[in-house]
Specification:
It contains nine helices and seven strands. It is of the alpha/beta class. About 4% of the residues have low confidence. InterPro entries: Methyltranfer_dom (IPR025714), SAM-dependent_MTases_sf (IPR029063).
């Protein structure tokens, strides 16, 4: 399934005004399980840092929802958000200027080549690495760009059914992925080879999360990929499924999973 065309349609709808953009981000925060997991990690990192000056890199910012969230946590944090898509970078800069958030800048950059030595206290990479073939080069750039003691946070599909692939004869649900998912040991070894000294990896999207993902993401995206007329049906669909997704998301974030279709990986320089 082509995911990017649907993202562009959603972007066209919600980019019309800053108010609609904020509504869109709030909806993503509620529906997307990965957002629940990432926000949990960001809250822990920010617990004793809100009043301090820090430099943050959002590596592969997309719509900019995580940069938006981070920029609202502390005005003292300087955030650079990079992406390869020029139209998204432009839209994101206009949105942040409309909000008056001067501590944020979006730039066009390819993570395979982007490196700013000893510049960041936190690097965030959410659902990016599954799109990049040259992952080791990117990890090396992340390590070089972090300051000593800085932390990298990665959210990415695992090889335990990530991208909804459960066997060798299946292909990724999302065609833009260059890999179906990481083995939890593989990604840790690649990060060590890039120079990271301390790594903590855990599974996300356990059994509750997998059901939630199908309800809140897979089935709606399949409908929209079939026909844009399903945009009319979508609000009624979410009215029925939303309460179940909320409970399932809470269960997934607050439980330890022996296996899962997603990975949350933290690494320190």
């Amino acid at each position: 399934m082509q995911y990017d065309p649907i993202k562009r349609v959603l972007g066209d709808v919600f980019n019309k005004t800053p108010f609609l953009r904020r509504v869109f981000f709030n909806l993503l925060d509620l529906l997307l399980l990965r957002t629940w997991h990432v926000h949990k990690e960001l809250r822990q990192w920010a617990a004793k840092r809100r009043g301090q000056e820090h430099c943050i890199l959002d590596a592969g910012a997309g719509f900019g929802q995580y940069t938006y969230h981070l920029s609202g946590m502390s005005p003292k944090w300087n955030i650079l958000a990079v992406d390869v898509k020029e139209e998204q970078v432009s839209d994101n800069n206009q949105f942040m200027r409309a909000l008056g958030r001067q501590n944020v800048q979006f730039k066009i950059a390819d993570l395979v080549h982007f490196r700013q030595p000893d510049s960041y206290d936190l690097i965030l990479s959410v659902d990016v690495m599954e799109h990049i073939l040259e992952d080791v080069e990117v990890f090396e750039n992340f390590h070089a760009s972090l300051r000593k003691g800085g932390m990298l946070v990665i959210s990415t599909p695992s090889d335990q059914g990530g991208s909804d692939v459960h066997g060798d004869d299946e292909t990724s649900f999302i065609e833009e992925h260059v890999r179906d998912g990481y083995n939890i040991n593989e990604i840790q070894e690649k990060l060590r080879s890039a120079g990271f000294s301390k790594i903590d990896a855990r599974y996300s999207y356990g059994k509750p999360g997998q059901i939630s993902w199908r309800l809140s993401m897979k089935y709606p995206m399949l409908m929209l990929n079939t026909s844009k007329l399903f945009f009319i049906v979508l609000p009624f669909y979410y009215l029925l499924t939303f309460p179940f997704s909320l409970v399932l998301n809470w269960m997934d974030v607050n439980n330890h999973h022996k296996s899962g279709t997603g990975l949350i990986v933290k690494a320190w320089k």
